[in-house]
Design a protein that fits this description.
heterodimer; A: 321 residues; alpha/beta; Rossmann fold; 2 domains; 5-stranded mixed β-sheet; 11 helices; B: 383 residues; 5-stranded parallel β-sheet; two-stranded antiparallel ribbon
């Protein structure tokens, strides 16, 4: 028996529906059809009236979730693709994110964003939006990299009294497997040492954790011990764990799949440079996608985003500095 | 002509307003007693006496107008930071909506809904405290002016992005449905400008698809900031937009309190009964600039002179006198009463502490333990 990342997301939602009558799911094609990726497969049948198809209206979908949350519900929103959250951006950053600050009334909504690139998906079905949402006060942004985290963090997201942007990576949906669902989890907001090492720290999140681990494995054959930090949530950002790792290794490479300007990798580097400058033996480095829209053709896409190979190359370069 | 258009036809009151409470011209004491009696009764019963309802509405309109003028004065005196947005000319439509709603309903007012807010139950002090930035107000200085509310009491605090509150009301109504709470109505107020937004389209369509008990009130005050109707939309009438969503729309003369009261009471009752969402379009003129910084020179003088430019508050007062529902002394006393109410609220709020930036809890999350920490304690030595 094994369970995939996607099945874990489906199971977490089933558990949330079963455990809490305040939970409902709202999104496009998620009802009887079970969702574009089948993340809500059979849930509409198992929980009648609580898994609702929405019109193609991201703004109104998020707005309704906020209104329902004010009235005591705990909605889970599925955006069909993370890319399509932009028409709902206003409600997320201006309404959901400001509600508690303005009124002291919490806004417990979970917005699932099927994120990141897959082969052939092109400019509008591949984006990673975590940096945009992390920029705004009042939001929590989760980026699970493992099957276990996909499950436990989604349950945490539903339980948290604040809006949570849950960035689940589409490339992990079918390929990433675990023997079973987890029975315990690390606290939200804590980063995880995915692999211990002493020569260089690679900080990654979401699917890039898997690429970083592959790169670390390859570099181990060359005699380097690479430490991989999985951020798990990019907001809050567990600076302590990152800093402690950099203190051990003296070298930092931060890897993200999204565009290079600003973003999570820039934030990690800024914090380490300002707070932990003395810990560094070499200039901190970062690796991102190229500063162009995400290309359709697999040949182009493979070079557009970081991969285990490019992570390896960047790490080798940094190890020689 | 569609059935919606027929519904939209003006409805004139048949009764002459001679029966029940209003047996003669009222003196101030009688008005006061009458209003207290009204407040202690249910809305249904109060509505059964039209003159009493009219007078109750007039009092809220007057209170809103006096409150607005006080806020404008404080703005000009430099006592209020940011904007002051007046509801002048829109009180009749607004109050009619507020009165048609009741406890347990959801209301998302817009910037010119002072009268409707008061009628829905918002304390005068909430407005004053928010404008003056009192630490004791509902927004505690974190948001100002018309961006106030009490979400837990069904009064939603607007964000500035127009049309955005419609779907939030929808969601509150969806929650009521999940919770099996029947008989609730949700109302959202917007202006002509907001009908051009995507949020308006998405929100109205969503309400129609879900058959939610939503009343959407559009105050067509002819200008969105400085932009006139002919640069805002190209349909013949804003009511036409409702047809596209498969919902009924009604026209109301926003300068006429009676028309507003009748149509809003009817629409809210129909929606409450479970007939699905409906839209009301009030035609009126904004008798002020967009906000107090704006003299509104661009408003067409012909419009001001037209029937659209009639001041609904003056018209309502004239009607009270004409029908003998109140005499001049009673209205004068009423005015003194509301002036005093506003003055007391201002005096109270002005004595209250301003928010202290050094004592402020700078945490945007309810889950305080999940706040991101930017002041990282410096690491002096590796762990």
């Amino acid at each position: 028996m094994s369970i995939t990342y996607l099945e874990a997301i489906r199971e977490a939602q089933a558990k949330a529906l079963a455990d809490d009558p305040r939970v409902f799911i709202y999104g496009q094609d998620i009802g009887a059809f079970g969702g574009a990726f089948k993340a809500t497969k059979n849930l509409a049948q198992e929980y009648p009236g609580r898994v609702l198809d929405a019109p193609i209206s991201e703004d109104a979908i998020v707005g309704a979730a906020i209104g329902a949350a004010i009235e005591g519900m705990r909605p889970i929103i599925e955006m069909q693709y993370a890319d399509f959250s932009t028409p709902g951006f206003n409600q997320i950053v201006n309404q959901a994110a400001t509600l508690f600050w303005r009124t002291q009334v919490p806004c417990p909504i979970t917005i699932r964003l099927p994120s990141g690139g897959t082969s052939g998906a092109g400019p509008f079905h591949s984006q990673s939006m975590e940096a945009l949402y992390a920029h705004y006060p009042g939001l929590i942004v989760m980026t699970p990299a493992t099957v276990e985290d996909a499950y436990s963090m989604l349950l945490e997201a539903v339980a948290i009294d604040d809006p949570v942007i849950f960035c689940e990576h589409k490339r992990l949906y079918y390929h990433l497997k675990a023997p079973a669902l987890p029975t315990e989890a690390m606290p939200v907001g804590k980063a995880r040492i995915a692999r211990a090492g002493r020569d260089l720290t690679i900080v990654a999140y979401s699917a890039m954790v898997q690429d970083a681990l592959a790169a670390a494995e390859e570099l181990a054959a060359e005699g380097f011990e690479i430490e991989v930090v999985d951020l798990r949530t990019v907001k809050p950002l567990d600076t302590d764990t990152v800093m402690a790792s950099v203190a051990r290794t003296g070298r930092l490479l931060c890897v993200g799949e999204s565009f290079p300007w600003g973003g999570v990798t820039a934030e990690v580097l800024a914090r380490v440079a300002t707070e932990g400058f003395g810990l560094l033996d070499a200039p901190p480095q970062r690796l991102n996608a190229k500063d162009t829209p995400i290309p359709y053709h697999p040949n182009l896409w493979l070079v557009h985003r970081p991969t285990a190979q490019s992570v390896c190359a960047a790490a080798r370069n940094l190890l020689q500095m | 002509m569609s059935s919606e258009r027929l519904l939209a036809g003006r409805r004139r009151l048949s009764h002459a307003g001679k029966e029940t409470v209003c047996a003669g011209t009222l003196n101030p004491v009688t008005i006061s007693v009458m209003l207290q009696t009204l407040e202690s009764r249910g809305t249904q019963e109060a509505a059964s006496s039209f003159p009493a309802q009219y007078l109750k509405a007039f009092r809220f309109m007057l209170l809103a107008r006096v409150l607005d003028e006080k806020m404008a004065g404080l703005y000009r005196a430099g006592k209020i930071q940011g904007g002051v947005f007046l509801g002048r000319g829109q009180e009749a439509l607004s109050v009619a909506l507020g009165l048609a709603l009741r406890k347990g309903d959801v209301f998302a007012p817009l910037i010119r809904d002072g009268a409707g807010r008061l009628a829905f139950g918002e304390p005068v002090l909430d407005a004053v405290r928010t404008y003056l930035g009192s630490a004791l107000g509902p927004m505690r200085g974190r948001d100002g002016n018309v961006h106030r509310g009490r979400p837990r009491q069904g009064l939603l605090p607007m964000i500035s992005h127009l049309g955005a509150m419609i779907s939030v009301v929808n969601g509150a109504l969806m929650a009521r449905r999940f919770q099996k709470l029947d008989g609730c109505v949700g109302a959202a107020s917007i202006g002509d400008g907001a009908t051009s937004t995507g949020s308006f389209h998405e929100g109205l369509n969503q309400a129609a698809v879900e058959r939610l008990p939503l009343v959407l009130v559009v105050a067509n005050n002819q200008y969105a900031y400085s932009t006139p109707n002919d640069r805002q939309f190209a349909c013949e009438d804003l009511m036409d937009k409702a047809i596209g969503y498969g919902i009924p729309a009604h026209r109301v003369d926003g300068t006429d309190l009676e028309d507003c009261l009748r149509v809003l009471a009817m629409v809210v009752a129909q929606v409450r009964a479970g007939g699905g969402p409906q839209m009301v379009v009030g035609r009126l003129l904004r008798l002020t600039g967009h906000a107090e910084h704006d003299p509104g020179h661009y408003v067409d003088p012909q419009l001001k002179k037209s029937p659209l430019g009639r001041d609904c508050l003056t018209a309502a007062e004239e009607r009270l006198l004409r029908e003998g529902w109140a005499n001049a002394d009673a209205i004068r006393a009423l005015r003194q009463q509301v002036v005093q109410e506003v003055s007391e609220a201002v005096a109270t709020a002005q004595r209250e502490p301003a928010p202290d930036p050094y004592k402020e809890n700078w945490c945007a999350l309810s889950s305080a333990h999940l706040i991101d920490v930017f002041e990282v304690p410096s690491l002096t030595s590796p762990p």
